[in-house]
Design a protein that fits this description.
lyase; TIM Barrel; alpha/beta; EC 4.2.1.68; 17 helices; 3-stranded antiparallel β-sheet; about 15% strand; magnesium ion binding; globular; 9-stranded mixed β-sheet; binds magnesium ion; about 45% helix; RHMD-like; about 450 residues
Length: about 450
């Protein structure tokens, strides 16, 4: 029997703000960061999880992960991994810890990190990538890991069992197809708001040459700039490539439609037009900008907000995120909701590690849940993959099926120590060379 004998939680930050990679209307200077968790076992593999953040505040999540680790039932690893539904409830519904949520913010993301690490461990023990582990679980086992609390007015355990049971039909063929053809990706690398027009146009052309059929531009700082960038991007990519836009929550509800409509119907989707909590606001914007479609979800804090967005007919694409919610357990709930309401899931990725972690859910979704690929595409941003032991691979605009056992969260130990904040060698060098003048803890 295996025991968890420790948890290493590290504040890892990459100095991406120096190049304005990742810049948008709200996140003007992110340092892509990870509150990084290693669950250490006494024998066999360790489990890795992480929470993505934009820099400052990463230390809060690090502390929250320690609190979440302390909530783990004192059981052998095999017992924990055999009852991940119960473990998830122990972390998420703890009678004291839940006060600083409930089910939102740093506490919830911390629970997610622990659950991601446990699933990583489970997949590694099974010798399978997470998506395939999930695809090979029985419908009953899958229902057990999902927390249906506050969902049952939209979807019940019985309906979920029906969806998973239906998903067994043709599953082997879909798994084989995923391994052979991968899954469609789209790219945001061209469209960061801090990039010059020339850089954006060059990268947009490169994206098309690389086989992507959908690109995304950040918008929302200036309507004139957005109209010009949209025109330049369209000229660069030609008529057949879809162009989505992403406002990263910048607009007031009553202002959003005028801005979006100024960009015309050439926009494939508008992402995060307003506050991620504003369900009715999203529904109103969606009505006012039709036929342009609404996408949201990277900052949707739990399955209950997704439930409301679906019930209110407030979105056309659900953008799940791998580290915002309570781990694979809650993302399976999100996939179930999307399947029930007939909405495609187009995951959010980028950041650090988000591509590596989130692809598993789309692969699993096709294998067993929605069993569909139409209008479904996974975000890809080509930053920081070199730090991961099993990085994602995108070939000709398609994510290749992850093959390494686990969930993809494990980073190289050298990368973790070099970019540990604030004392890692990478940060020391930036300081001594004068590229950064001060850091928060100086
Ligand atoms: Mg976004």
């Amino acid at each position: 029997m295996t025991k968890i004998i420790g948890a290493e939680i590290v504040d890892v930050r990459f100095p991406t703000s120096l190049e304005l990679d990742g810049s948008d209307a709200v996140n003007v200077d992110p340092d892509y960061s990870a509150a990084y968790l290693r669950l250490v076992t006494d024998e066999g593999p360790d489990g890795y999880g992480l929470v993505f953040t934009a820099g400052r505040g990463n230390e809060v999540v690090v502390a929250a992960i320690q609190s979440a680790v302390d909530l783990l039932p004192d059981e052998e690893v095999e017992t924990l991994l055999g009852h991940l539904g119960q473990v998830s409830k122990a972390l998420v519904h703890d009678s004291q810890f839940r006060w600083i949520g409930p089910e939102k913010g740093a506490a919830h993301m911390a629970a997610g990190a622990v659950l991601n690490a446990l699933w990583d461990l489970k997949a590694k023990q099974a010798g399978l990538p997470l998506w395939e582990l999930l695809a090979r679980m029985s419908p009953e086992e899958l229902v057990e890991v999902v927390d249906f609390t506050h969902l049952r007015d939209a979807i019940t355990e019985a309906e979920a069992l029906e969806i998973f049971t239906r998903g067994q039909d043709g599953k082997e063929e879909r798994i084989a197809a995923l391994k052979q053809h991968g899954y469609a990706a789209y790219t945001t690398s061209a469209g960061w708001l801090g990039y010059s027009d020339d850089k954006m146009v060059r990268l947009a052309k490169e994206a098309v040459a690389d086989g992507f059929t959908l690109i995304k531009l950040k918008v929302g700082a200036s309507v004139d700039d957005d109209v010009r960038r949209m025109r330049l991007a369209r000229e660069a990519v030609g008529p057949d490539i879809k162009i989505a836009i992403d406002a990263n929550q910048i607009w007031e509800v009553h202002e959003a439609s005028a801005w979006i409509n100024a960009l015309g119907h050439d926009v494939y989707w508008v992402e995060e037009p307003t506050s991620p909590d504003d369900v009715l606001g999203h529904a109103r914007i969606r009505r006012e900008i039709s036929p342009v479609r609404v996408a949201t979800g990277e900052a949707v804090q739990n399955r209950i907000i997704f439930k409301q967005l679906l019930q209110a007919e407030a979105l056309d694409f659900m953008q799940i995120d791998s580290t915002r919610v309570a781990g694979p357990n809650e993302n399976i709930a999100n996939l179930l909701l999307a399947a029930k309401f007939g909405i495609p899931v187009c995951p959010h990725a980028g950041g650090v590690g988000l591509c590596e972690l989130v692809v598993h859910f789309s692969f699993f979704d096709f294998a067993v849940v929605s069993t569909a690929l139409e209008n479904r595409v996974i975000e890809f941003v080509d930053h920081l993959h070199e730090h991961f032991v099993a990085p994602v691979t995108v070939v000709n605009g398609r994510y290749q099926a992850p093959g390494a056992p686990g969930n993809g969260a494990e980073m190289y130990a050298d990368s973790v120590s070099r970019w540990t904040y604030p004392a890692g060698a990478g940060w020391e060098e930036l300081r001594s060379s004068g590229r950064i003048t001060a850091i928060a803890s100086d």
